[in-house]
Amino acid sequence: MYTLLRVVLIVALAALLSIFMPLVVAALFAIVLQLPLAWVVFGRQRRRVNDAIAGASRHRRADRDRLRAALEGSAALSAGPSAGPSAEPGGGPVDPPAARPTGPGR
What kind and span of H or E run contains 54? Predict the structure, then answer.
């Protein structure tokens, strides 16, 4: 909806400005002029869109944290009884990347 409002604002400004200048130039000016006008005129709609994006981001972050917790729990179960809880937040023992074997001689 917010995007549609901004497009309507561009069209209205371009129509108004095309009285004084060619249509292509009026459209370019309308695009530039709508940026600050949309910020002021459509502030409430912009805040609603921002809140919706922030909510989706929080939801996605919570889902990602739940998935990580589930994966760490299943990794601790599959590692056997020696893999107890560690002092690190969020999981069992983890080998540092340098200590992991690499190359063809694994």
Answer: helix 43-79
